[in-house]
Amino acid sequence: MRRITGWLCALWLAMAAFAPVFALAMEILLRFARRMDRLSDRLGAAVSWLLLLMVFIGAFNAVVRYVGRFTGWQLSSNAYLELQWYLFSIVFLLGAAYGLRRDSHVRVDVLYGHVRPRVRAWIDFLGSIVFLLPFCAFAIVSSWPSVRNSWAVRETSPDPGGLVRYPIKSLIPVAFALLFLQGVAQAIKRLAELRRSGSMPTGDEG
């Protein structure tokens, strides 16, 4: 136990000794986090307009199918249905980083809302490092062969009148890359919050 305590004290003293360098590094990292936040905000605002287009296409497809029953005109198409799915996929995939940035994602957690801000910061920081970032990296690596094969064969929908599929599949690794970068930004902000709260040495102790 004494040995563990000694190692922890040595680690704390080392962090305090290098606190000025750490402060400079944190400022650089926070600059990146702010830029990533702005990118996610702009991307989220852009894809939100696709929801309106998705609703319009869905309503149009429903109306023309209903009209076609009485007129015999084939105005509906599988392309409309697939376009609606594709728009939903774009909103879901490219909006994930925005949801994380705004903390609007669903938390399966019964303790988070009942603990102190410092504890929440630790939960967010460790959750990002231990779970979110490895999961995003795994998703990028595991989805890449499917995306590559889809581009190689110029994959299209098997349904008559369907759309091409390889462009929409390309958004999978892109979306997880954006989510990864936003996860890094969130971890940086929580680390800065822990430093300000006194959970880490700041170099101002002396």
Give your account of this protein's structure.
The radius of gyration is 24 Å and the shape is elongated. Helix content is 78%, strand content 0%. It contains six helices and no strands. Mean pLDDT is 85; it is low at 201-206. The chain has helices spanning 2-17, 19-71, 78-94, 96-101, 117-152, 166-197. With 206 residues, it is an all-alpha fold.
Task: Explain the layout of strands and helices.
Layout: H1 2-17, H2 19-71, H3 78-94, H4 96-101, H5 117-152, H6 166-197
The quaternary structure here is: single chain
* Contiguous runs where pLDDT drops below 50 for at least 5 residues: 201-206
Q: What is the helix tally?
A: 6
What is the mean predicted local confidence, pLDDT?
85
Which strand-content bin applies to the residues? under 5%
The helix/strand series, from N terminus to C terminus, equals HHHHHH
How is the main sheet built? none
What overall form do the CA principal axes indicate? Answer: elongated
Structural class: mainly alpha
Helix content: over 70%
Please give the number of β-strands. Answer: 0
The rounded distance between the terminal residues' Cα atoms is: 28 Å
What attributes characterize this protein structure?
elongated, mainly alpha, 78% helix, single chain, 206 residues
Quick summary:
The protein has 206 residues and is an all-alpha fold.
